[in-house]
Amino acid sequence: MNSWTFSMQNSNSPIYDMMIFFHDFTMMILTFITLMIFFIMYSMINNKFINRYLLQGHLIELIWTITPMIILIFIAIPSIKILYLTDEMYNNKLTIKSLGHQWYWSYEYSDFFNIEFDSFMIPTNQLKMNEFRLLDTDNRCILPFNFPIRILTTSLDVIHSWTIPSLGIKMDSTPGRLNQSLLIMYRPGLYFGQCSEICGMNHSFMPIVIESTNFLNFKNWLKSFI
Ligand SMILES: [Cu+2]
Question: Which residue in 30, 153, 192, 219 is a FRET match for 44, CA 20 to 30 A apart?
């Protein structure tokens, strides 16, 4: 992961692949429209054509009414498709629950007995050389890759938002409500995110780290709780 970048993070899940496609597709249309408007503005200012008797042109009005409608439909179809796919549960075999607190996350692996822990940000003065400032946590959320996981989230105080950009997940953690999303990771690695709902004084200091590893490692890690 770059320390900062102009573009989005590299994708690590099928949903985020689709979101990146949709972003590029919409930007293409946006660029085209913007350039066309600037060209028309420029050419209207810089010509001397006048027509005193032009009061109506039904054909051109029809064209400039229907064309934007068609463009909007072309944007709406993939947008709605991706929106509903992010809400879809498919073949998930594992459920984890992330709970927002002021100001840290805690995780519960509800399929197993008594596996739960808190995940605090590592303060800057305790960082090791290989850790990211304001992003690393003391206990990472360890999960298997290539494995559909249902992630539930809720909050115990105010509204937080559980977010991992490279997985295309941004899900509100609301007190008294349980939100769910499907999480699939392509490959092993560390995935960073931050709380994305202004939740109080230390909102910026409750990062999320997923460590994805193969299933055998994950199983061994679960055994360490026994
Ligand atoms: Cu928060």
Answer: 30
